[in-house]
TrEMBL record:
SUPFAM superfamilies: L domain-like (SSF52058)
Keywords: Leucine-rich repeat, Repeat
Species this chain originates from: Sinocyclocheilus rhinocerous
Listed name of the protein: Si:ch211-191d15.2
Keyword Repeat on entry: yes
Organism domain of life: Eukaryota
Database matches in Pfam families: LRR_1, LRR_8
One annotated GO biological process: neuron projection regeneration
């Protein structure tokens, strides 16, 4: 049980348990534990395919995640996760899109964060992306051509942002109509 007096926990003191580190662990959830640092904790789990770290207090990507991950529900060192298809970063304190997202992603959920701008280089690498959830953030506008390189994109959720409806966002209305 997590102490309610502490604002942030490391993996060990939040769970108070030593997990069995076998290659057979395929799915693991440590969501809602107020974790702030899980660097290198999951590296020994070489068979891990799905990991949930959602709704914690991570402000950066942990180091040392196993390359076997296919679904990561929270933050991760994404550069070498070439099999990663789904990434859920929902409900954290991210202020921007993660850098070096793998092109294998087909589903990205960064909703309920503090993202205020879209990094075109991070988005542009996501050539297989089909679903983007970036609702409930701090976006005020969308850069022109933000989704141009995302030919497989089928769904974009943008509700509940801090939109500034000025002329410089009009370029975005035509692409939105194609999703209707």
């Amino acid at each position: 049980m997590v102490s309610t007096t502490s604002l942030c926990h490391t993996f060990d003191n939040a769970l108070g348990v030593e997990l069995k580190k076998e290659n057979t662990t395929a799915v693991l959830s440590v969501a809602r534990n107020r974790l702030c640092n899980v660097d290198n904790v999951f590296q020994p789990y070489s068979g891990l395919q799905e990991l949930s770290l959602s709704h914690n207090q991570l402000v950066r990507f942990p180091r040392g995640l196993p390359s076997s991950l296919e679904t990561l529900q929270q933050l991760g060192n994404l550069t070498r996760l070439t099999r990663l298809r789904m990434l859920t970063l929902k409900g954290n304190r991210l202020s921007r899109l993660p850098p070096n997202l793998p092109p294998s992603l087909i589903h990205l959920d960064v909703s309920a964060n503090c993202i205020s701008t879209l990094d075109l280089s991070s988005l542009g690498a996501l050539v297989n992306l089909q679903v983007l959830k970036i609702n409930s953030n701090c976006l005020r506008s969308i850069p022109e051509r933000a989704f141009d390189g995302l030919s497989r994109l089928r769904s974009v959720e943008l509700a509940n942002n801090q939109w500034v409806c000025e002329c410089d966002i009009l370029h975005f209305s035509n692409p939105l109509l194609s999703f209707l």
